[in-house]
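Practice problem: predict the structure.
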Amino acid sequence: MVKRPRGRPAGSKNKPKPPIIVTHDSPNSLRAHAVEISSGNDICEALSDFSRKKQRGLCILSANGCVTNVTLRQPASSGAIVTLHGRFEILSLLGSILPPPAPLGITGLTIYLAGHQGQVVGGGVVGGLIASGPVVIMAASFMNAVFDRLPLDDDESASMQNQQYYQNGRSRPLDDIHGLPQNLLTNGNSGSDVYSWGAAQRAMSKP
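Answer:
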């Protein structure tokens, strides 16, 4: 008997794998945007129009530039609304903007500003936010959002664990179980309100 040598034959190598090509974005993926708003335009209105026309929600991450004549709501002053006259530099701009339909209380912007004497003011934006010079905003957009109510009760926690079990590929797909498209189940929680603004799927599913 001839003993067979161990290992690979001389000159053999791994076969090259074909490249992975993504032909379209997932509805649950985030997309980065650098948005420039020209002087004299309302920042809130421009972002709302952008969100509505693109049918994507926006998560505002940062902003650079100046604004003028800002109206703010300051919770520390019992919800008082103050109007600041003059030109202010944006230190921070955060918030989210969702196209309709969207739950109340989620859409809104919070801004912190520096005045010409170094004073820092901030609060929730009420009304217009007029750009004084070009304003550049970094934002992330998305097509789906899930509205959760916390804390979860025991039944919802167990349901969430079961769906995570299914998502790991140990049982049949979620869309066969719940009758919902896979892209609407963004966090695996059937006890959530799912809001989708896609052109093909304009749905609002509630438990």
